[in-house]
Amino acid sequence: MTQRILNIGTRGSLLALTQSEWVKAALERQWQECRVELKIIKTTGDKILDVPLAKVGGKGLFVKELEDALLEETVDLAVHSMKDVPADLPHGLEIGAIPRREDPRDVLISRNGQDLYGLPLNARLGTSSLRRAAQLKFLRPDLQIENLRGNLDTRLRKLEEGRYDAIVLAAAGIHRMGWQDRITAYLSTTEFLPAIGQGALGIEIRSEDQTMRELIAPVHDSDTAAAVRAERSLLMGLQGGCQVPIAGHAQVSNGQIALQGLVASLDGKQMFRMTRSASYDEAESLGRDLARELLDAGARAILDEIYGAAQTS
Mean pLDDT across the stretch 162-170? Predict the structure, then answer.
């Protein structure tokens, strides 16, 4: 029997390739009549490494070229980190499967083994995330937050070179690369909320491709998908992007979803954070309701100020 060849569109970083290789192996185990190949596509976000994401268009820069390849039918599916996927998808595309989530937390990696509160006064901490920077400034106002871009291995190398005293990264990427021994401390979600969708992978397909939807169904995890739906609904309700410090994390247990949401000012001095729960099948409405409560509590003023400043700059 002739093997069917499936082409996965992926970024070329070590982490992206590791994630796509995991999807490749899972599909080939499930469907022995299929051979899966990776097609590396360089995204705009991979090309612009010296400017903060908030100033060059946000997270969509890491997925647009992959989505273009899907729409042009040069690949059959694309593998993303869900935290990189904008709230709105292009017409004709959908997230067809979300595998079981890795650890969603952020981690601190320091040169001398200190945790967040053990870092010296005015320590240099590297991150390109406004969300991370705002929460760090709230917890440690003395820290010198400096821009850090690049792939996972590049960021770790810059830390080793002494450019920073510590950096903050997603635990999921470190785990997937098998570099857990590098982690100095995990940042608990009780005081430091992760990005929307952090730790989850998304497999994007063409909406009309029913065959591909069936092929990727075995790797889908319904609990992770429900949690991510709630988080992304929160993001849509806040009309958020990379220009605003927004965080969210949902957990599923006993048919209930508990969703935490956060909106902060850029300097970390103002922070609105709430937690709400709803039944499993109310993920989207839970996100929308929490967004509305955050906006009414004062987050709207932060968003208006940040977006207003962006339009005049």
Answer: 97
SS3 135: helix
Tokens of 135: 């929460």
Among 68, 76, 84, 281, the one annotated catalytic: 84
pLDDT at 61: 73
- 160 & 212 share domain: no
Residue 216 domain flag: yes
Which candidate, 193, 170, 196, 197, places its Cα nearest to that of 268?
Answer: 193
* Domains identified in the chain, total number: 3
DSSP for 72-107? TTS-SEEEEEGGGS-SSPPTTEEEEE-PPP----EE
pLDDT in tens, 257-285: 999 999 999 999 999 999 999 999 999 99
Q: Could you tell me if 134 and 281 lie in one domain?
A: no
Which residues share a beta bridge with 187? 106
Look up 296 and say whether it is catalytic.
no
Range of the domain at 232: 221-308
Query: At a CB cut-off of 8 Å and minimum separation 6, what does 239 contact?
Result: 303
In this predicted structure, what is the pLDDT of residue 55?
56
Taking the C-alpha atoms of residue 58 and residue 60, their distance in angstroms, rounded to an integer, is: 6
